[in-house]
Design a protein that fits this description.
heterodimer, A: 359 residues, alpha/beta, Rossmann fold, 2 domains, seven-stranded mixed beta sheet, five-stranded mixed beta sheet, 14 helices, 14 strands, B: 182 residues, Pyruvate-ferredoxin Oxidoreductase, domain 3, 6 helices, globular
């Protein structure tokens, strides 16, 4: 038995950051994810690993501190909730343009605007399709348990550095606030200066006589060069496709499937159990990465099942990607509560019956 | 075995910490657990509630709208959650401040006068552990040994001297819970 703890999702992310060898966390509190910075401050990681934890004056400042830290090859991260992520959008776009690795987490709350502090999944478009300006993508991974909140910090940092690109953990108020059993991974030491120089030859670690200056920028006024740069980014995003992760739950003999991520996937899992008890063959396809999206698996399932219901706490965002993936082969509908309301397993089951089976 | 519980009362009664100790105890006993609190402005001076699930298999939804057991500590929570108990389920309530008692006949109802009992014994601070004891009498989902282990794990070391008092409060709850007939 490993080191099991009962933790809130937000606390698990904070502990995982320290254990993943994070060099710096720069954040600004906002419900429902303030436990991240609270936990980090209480842990005093500057004493445990030398990690810097700083409460910035705003989300805009946080993301720009990340730009600076990442430019020096450091493992940096921030977390926020919906309105805070909107404030960071410009900085995220700049980091994608300048090819800077960083780990972000959005513990989504209901919107638009200040909205509500209760859970939602209404930031899928913002996270997966852009958010900031320009042709860029982030590696996006969506935890559905406290265990995954911890594990995905490590994966997120790995992907960010592998692709020199921002990575985002897309969570929500349910997963952030709930407590579950979590097995913490063994701490990874922070990288030494020499390791940073070896792994990040592009970083601004101090020019030596044997190399050219490293320049961290997202600006190139020469359009031909900028086009080359954007095509280089495109190649990275295409290479990222092989990192796709998903989970099949009872899909083998399924006639209908739910497609859901994060807390909605947990709710759908219960609905699957309830439906099976009634003799309805239902399964669940849970996208774990949202970018890349499990298109091939959905297309495969489309030739097996009669219909799919995308369940997300939004007006219907991921459902568009599900429809693109199945190429019109089967009926795909959306169900979801909004504004901070959480759909219940029985509502999700009713929706399947009325919109897909009977519809 | 899967036990789905809602614990609801005023903020400050120890609703969330009772759920936390129960979840910790279940975890120490090797069970799967989840703890999903209400959060936000309603906690400040208003009502607080938490959904605790204890199971011997993987827990699906941490968010539920019907429960095996409801532990109810004020009138507002009784009004809100009596109807959410599954038929054949259990409702435990503290009669303090209850002017409209529960009316359902398809569930089993118990009372624990924990407010009065804890006040009489000068144990107001561990009122919630008396309530927890009453629940464990009705639904012995975790054993004493693991309740103690749960307390040790969930309380900071500086409060470990209070563990015997908490264990005693659980005993009191077990002893004084009574059936309630509608």
């Amino acid at each position: 038995m490993g080191d099991f703890k009962l933790m809130k999702g937000n606390e698990a992310v904070a502990e995982a950051a320290i254990r993943a060898g994070c060099d710096g966390y720069f954040g600004y509190p906002i419900t429902p994810q303030s436990e991240v910075i609270e936990y980090l401050m209480a842990q005093q990681p500057e004493k445990r690993t030398g990690m810097v934890v700083l409460q910035a004056e705003s989300e805009t400042a946080s993301i720009n501190m990340l730009y600076g830290g990442a430019g020096a090859g450091k493992r940096v991260m921030t977390t926020s909730s919906s309105p805070g992520i909107s404030l960071m959008a410009e900085g995220i776009s700049y980091m994608a343009g300048a090819e800077l690795p960083c780990l972000l987490m959005n513990v989504v709350r209901g919107g638009p605007g200040l909205g509500t502090i209760q859970p939602s999944q209404c930031d899928y478009f913002q996270t997966v399709k852009g958010g900031g300006h320009g042709d860029y993508r982030m590696f996006v991974i969506a935890p559905a348990s406290v265990q995954e909140m911890s594990d995905f910090v490590k994966i997120g940092f790995d992907m960010a550095f592998k692709y020199r690109n921002p990575a985002m953990i897309l969570s929500d108020g349910v997963i952030g606030q709930m407590m579950e059993k979590v097995e913490l991974f063994d701490p990874i030491p922070r990288r030494t200066d020499a390791e940073v120089i070896a792994e990040c030859p592009w970083a601004t670690t101090g020019k030596t006589p044997d190399r050219e200056r490293n320049i961290i920028t997202s600006l190139d006024l020469d359009s031909l060069k900028q086009e080359e740069h954007v095509m280089h980014l495109k190649a990275k995003y295409e290479a990222m496709q092989k990192e796709v992760m998903f989970e099949n739950i009872m899909t083998d003999d399924a006639e209908y499937i739910y497609v859901a991520y994060g807390s909605s996937a947990r709710i759908c899992q219960k609905a699957v159990d309830m439906a099976r008890a009634e003799g309805i063959k239902v399964g669940l396809l849970r996208p774990i990465t949202l970018y890349p999206f499990p298109e091939a698996e959905l297309l495969r399932l489309a030739s097996q099942v009669k219909g799919m219901l995308a369940v997300e706490m939004s007006l219907g965002q991921m459902v568009e990607d599900v429809r693109l993936a199945v190429r019109g082969k089967i009926k795909v509908e959306h169900y979801g509560r909004v504004g901070g309301m959480i759909h219940s397993p029985s509502q999700v089951l009713e929706a399947l019956k009325s919109q897909i089976i009977g519809g | 075995m899967t036990e789905e519980i809602i614990i609801a009362g005023f903020g400050g009664q120890g609703v969330l910490s009772m759920g936390k100790i129960l979840a910790y105890s279940g975890m120490m006993q090797g069970l799967e657990v989840s703890w999903m609190p209400s959060y936000g402005p309603e906690m400040r001076g208003g009502t607080a509630n938490v959904i605790v699930i204890i199971s011997d298999s993987r827990i699906s939804s941490p968010v539920l709208t019907e429960f095996d057991t409801a532990i109810i500590l004020n009138q507002q929570s009784l009004d809100k959650f009596e109807s959410t108990v599954k038929p054949g389920g259990v409702l435990i309530f503290d009669p303090n401040g209850i002017i409209k008692p529960p009316t359902r006949k398809d569930i089993t109802i118990y009372t624990i006068d924990a407010t009065k009992k804890s006040s009489d014994l000068g144990l107001s601070k561990i009122f919630n552990m008396i309530v927890l004891g009453s629940y464990l009498k009705v639904k012995p989902v975790v054993t004493d040994q693991f309740i103690k282990a749960g307390l040790e794990k969930s309380l900071p070391t500086r409060h470990h001297s209070l563990i015997p008092e908490n264990v005693k409060a659980v005993e009191i709850g077990r002893e004084f819970v009574t059936s309630y007939t509608v």
